[in-house]
Amino acid sequence: MTSQKLTICIDRGGTFTDCIGFLGKPGKPETREFVVKLLSEDPANYKDAPTEGIRRIVELATGKTLPRHQPVPTEMIDSVRMGTTVATNALLERKGEKCAFITTKGFRDLLVIGNQSRPRIFDLSITKPEVLQKCVVEIDERVLLLNSAAAIDRVDNPEQIPGAVEGISGEWLQVLRKPDPETVRQQLRALYDDGFRSIAVCLMHSYTFPDHEILVGALAEDIGFTHISLSHAVMPMVKIVPRGASATADAYLTPCIKKYIQGFVSGFDNGFANKTTKLQFMQSDGGLVPVDKFSGFRAILSGPAGGVVGYSATSWDDINEPVIGFDMGGTSTDVSRYGGAFEHVFETTTAGVTIQAPQLDINTVAAGGGSMLFFKNGMFVVGPESAGAHPGPACYRKGGPLAVSDANLFLGRLLPDYFPKIFGPNENEPLDVEIVKEKFTKLANEINAANPDDQKSVDEVVYGFIKVANETMCRPIRSLTEAKGHNTSNHTLAVFGGAGGQHACGIARNLGIGKIILYRHSSILSAFGLALADVVHEVQEPSAEILSRESLPRLQERVEALTKSSMTELSENQGFALSDISTEVYLNLRYEGTDCALMTLKPADSWDFESTFMQLYKQEFGFALTDRKIVVDDIRVRGIGHTMGGDRRLTPKHELQTLEVKEVDPKSMRDAVTSVYFETGRDDNVPIYRLNKLPAGTNVPGPAIIIDATATIVVEPSCSALVTSQHITITVGKGEKTRVTTEMEPIQLSIFSHRFMSIAEQMGRSLQKTAISTNIKERLDFSCALFGPEGGLVANAPHLPVHLGALSHAVTYQMNYYRDDLHEGDVIMTNHPAAGGSHLPDITIITPVFDKGKIVFFVASRAHHADIGGLTAGSMPPFSKELYQEGAAIRSFKVVENGKFDAAGIKHYLYDVPGSYPGCSGTRLLRDNISDIKAQIAANQKGINLVKSLIEEYSLEVVQAYMGHIRANAESAVRELLKDVGQQHKGEALTAVDYMDDGTPIRLKITIDEATGNAVFDFDGTGPEVYGNTNTPESVCYSAIIYCVRCLVAQDIPLNSGCLVPIDIRIPPKSILSPSETCAVVGGNVLTSQRIVDVVLKAFGACAASQGDCNNLTFGKNDTNKGAGWGYYETIAGGHGAGPGWSGQDGVHTHMTNTRITDPEIFERRYPVLLREFSIRQGSGGEGYYRGGNGVVRDIEFLEDGIEVSILSERRVFRPYGLKGGGDGKPGLNLWIRHQGDTLLTLNLSGKNTALFGKGDRIIIQTPGGGGFGSPDHAAPKRSARSPAPHPIVKASGSLGAYKEMQEST
């Protein structure tokens, strides 16, 4: 037996637990390695997979048998390093610790409302994950930030204000109310007596003033709470919502982790307890921490983080291309990027919980080998549903559904004879091939029955799913790299995870990547990466400094203190020599007046953060704001204890320089031959090689299969694999592609659906990167779309409901306007409602795509500009009566003609013309307008390039044919919906009417031909246009209808003009839905559009009315004496309507809007306001078997005189309707609490009003509730065949997930 001790690294994944033990230094030739792979859950054979894995490794290393029922001895183990999904699973399954949330009075519903957006915009049931806390306690305390960014009446000597204190960030605050210790003690005691032992405390502005939290924490500790999460200690960053969610996640998850660790340690002798054997865990940021420092909210990516560390050390060196990490396991596919430094994100949402913590930017893009396979609506669909570990894919012998792993097994890409025999009741059976054949044969028969003119073999059907799976995964990879300003093809693909090797060549070929690297431990790289990981200790503090020469000494002093703290922890508490410790210093920087902060690493040899930040900003967004000050939001020091002495050079670079390459000899080296299906058909003579039998320097041409102990690597035709001592490097050839014809083929239909959407998405990424305004860059208030040569919509992204369908009207108008006068190099600008516009701030840029002198497509982008002139700043006046009062109205203008940009023309249309009207101004932000218009033009050009690449790849005829096929697919889905509804109603017309608060009716009659699925939507009887601004352009009416239809179809279908082909929409001219060209429309876009949706859904009987409103609140100040001014705009959530099978959600945005609301701390930091309350308006939802959702109460106190406040709202008179016996929701109410001398007045502002508020005045907005569904006294109403059922939310994570969430909540 050796005297060396084992280092054991374990990655507990969703399906498998991977374990690797080392005697010696990881990655060295002389080191002995022991690999074990086992199921993560197998209760019939062992309680805990990591414990069982360690037991088996010790057995292999010692040659001794260790009975399962005895504790595992640790005398031979130096350390155990683990990445675990315990925290992630507890979060996903909501099986964490019972905990309570303690917050400031007025904010008890803070985490329920969150940012007020809904997760899926087409989900009528609005399925949201439940919050983590079981109880909320409000503490009567309050602090106020002095001198907000917009404050005109500034406090020059804040220290003289009674109760003033200076916060950690340097900001001054005033303590308005201190918490009463005895009252708080009683509140906490009541919680303790109710069985709570874990609490999270998050008070307003505690990131900079933690005193009140510390008081609450001390009282809780005295009472006996066993876990206390104080938000300022968990993550001291501004934004109370994510900070509160992070603290709650910590209180919810950390006790679970401690219980798991206690159970894990109990499976061993006392080595861990005595600390003779080290136990370390991987955090989400890619660093290890000792067991006593491991916390729940930093553990979400504990498992996949090891893989990023692993491929960064084994695949990248400083002369190579950057690397895309592709980790495909049994239950998830994770994508990341490494270019010499770990890429972190600092705010992510997992399972509905937003967490503030440094995390590697790991993006879950699919469900891995467990991604389920479907044939839906004539298309091949892969995921996002997952078979998981239980039951797993069909081949796991647990009765599971068909999944990607089954497809690989059927096609011969996964070989049962070489796969661990760990299945069946005795965990000794191979993968089940027969059940897979049976299920795929049945599915192929169903597909062929649906396509009698295109009969496919079972091989062709199954390979079709592999092609669709690959394209499904490639689409987010393109988005990830494009978003960071990189070309996807200029990367190496590092492939790992158990299923990665089967898809590597296909993924790389689709992405245009020429080289793949697989480390020899690719299938267990997340476990291997733990051996290469460093121990990390981070410290962070908030700041509010302006980066300047004057502030730099103060910042350096704070950095020095944080560095000392971090190094002391690593050296004195964790035993690292000072020579093995390094530190990284970061400042979280942003331009003043923006939200976009970038964590900026200090240059190695200077403190020139400004240049580094500007370079980083320019790479990310394409420009720098040289005239803006730079704000320091946070100071962060990352202390690193190097575990490998800095020696992590495990790439093949040096070996390849001297390697002698020889072609493989199939006859002598192959282990067997097998039958595999490829793009070119089935090949029955594919050689199988065992990796351990291939000497370094062997080149294996495809097709071939290389088998490792825990991985199967498919080398496709036209590819070749070079074996080195530690790696396989695959060179990817172009290969043969099946010729695609113009005939509709369901596999290609799915692929083209992804490709068309990818074009629109990449246009959006380009626009966001290069735009300058907050609306576009940070709120993502834009849409990009692709259109056919006749102007019909092909693909639209991001999915803003109010833009759906409307953009097509704009393109069609311009086609008819110019006819033959459009040429290559022309770009059109428009925003007029009569020309397909929505409201005037939404400027549309349209560019024709030419091929051989002929228009073959159009691309367009529509973006909300912050100002385009008119009566008021922001161009959304609440009392506009004529269109000119709302700003520039442009019917058509060639902003680029023959390639020449017309800046003078923009000034004429945006500044000169609107400023010529009485009482109106031209745009107040001309420079920003021009910059954003240029960004839109650039986004369109990106789309043109991608369209031309697609045409080059497939031919114009094929691309346009599939444009038509995809539209026909959407049309078919809508026809099926209408046929079902028509049959249910036996030919009777569907009718509905609802009213605007001024009494204007919106009336709808829907007649359906149940045989053909054609329908007429007739709005005859709708009220006339109004002398106000609730008139709605026809294009917005179309958007509302296409939104409703997509919701009612209740499945993912391509959103394009095909959706409206079966529908004949009839709108009476000169009505509120088709107003005269000079009518004001700003309210129609944000108010009337909601009422149209209410009417359509009422006619279908789909659900009760939601709040039917956006609650548009604007306020601001223009101080001409001081030359300063500011403005603010928000929309406010309300109640959600109940439906068949669901109760309404409280405090959420519905239907045609999904805007996020500003975090309360940011709100008060920027503007002279005090947010007194933001809570659920209890009892405002309608009664019913399924209750309507409640609205919210938003109470804002103004801290300066002369602030102009405007409210533009609806449903203050007519209540949101209930259905099927359900009660109506309560109407909204807008109140002005006004100081008039010594008198305090309460005034009803009605639905639409503007007033000048004084210091101490308040506006209280009570938003409408949603209607109830079904009588509360009767049984549950039946769900109609087409009523959308609540379904689990499957969402992307990492920066892609955050972008997608922002995209659908602008």
Give a quick set of tags describing it:
single chain; 25% strand; 54 strands; globular; alpha+beta; nine-stranded mixed beta sheet; 29% helix; 28 helices; seven-stranded antiparallel beta sheet; 1306 residues
Describe the structure.
This protein has 1306 residues and is an alpha+beta fold. Helix content is 29%, strand content 25%. The chain contains 28 helices and 54 strands. The strands form twelve sheets. Strands 18-15-14-21-22-34-33-30-27 form a nine-stranded mixed β-sheet, with helices on both faces. Strand 44 (1014-1018), helix 25 and strand 45 form a beta-alpha-beta unit.
SS summary, helix count: 28
What structural class should be given to the helix and strand makeup? alpha+beta
Distance linking N and C termini: 64 Å
* Beta-strand content bin: 25-35%
Mean pLDDT metric: 89
Number of strands: 54
The helical percent reads: 25-40%
Question: Could you give the topology of this structure?
Answer:
Elements: E1 6-12, E2 16-23, E3 32-39, H1 49-62, E4 77-83, H2 86-93, E5 99-104, H3 110-113, E6 135-139, E7 142-145, E8 164-166, E9 172-177, H4 181-193, E10 198-202, H5 211-223, E11 227-230, H6 231-234, H7 240-265, H8 271-274, E12 278-282, E13 288-290, H9 302-315, E14 323-328, E15 333-338, E16 344-350, E17 353-360, E18 363-366, E19 371-376, E20 379-386, H10 404-410, H11 433-450, H12 458-483, E21 492-496, H13 500-511, E22 515-519, H14 525-532, E23 535-542, H15 552-573, E24 581-591, E25 598-601, H16 609-621, E26 630-641, H17 653-658, E27 662-663, H18 666-669, E28 672-678, E29 681-690, E30 698-701, E31 704-707, E32 712-715, E33 720-723, E34 727-731, H19 746-770, H20 774-777, E35 782-787, E36 793-797, H21 806-818, E37 827-830, E38 842-851, E39 854-864, E40 893-897, E41 900-901, H22 903-915, H23 926-954, H24 956-984, E42 990-995, E43 1001-1009, E44 1014-1018, H25 1034-1049, E45 1063-1066, H26 1082-1100, E46 1112-1119, E47 1124-1131, H27 1160-1166, E48 1169-1177, E49 1191-1198, E50 1203-1208, E51 1229-1236, E52 1239-1244, E53 1248-1253, ...
Helix pairs in contact: 2-7, 4-5, 9-14, 10-11, 10-12, 12-13, 12-19, 19-23, 19-24, 21-25, 23-24, 25-26
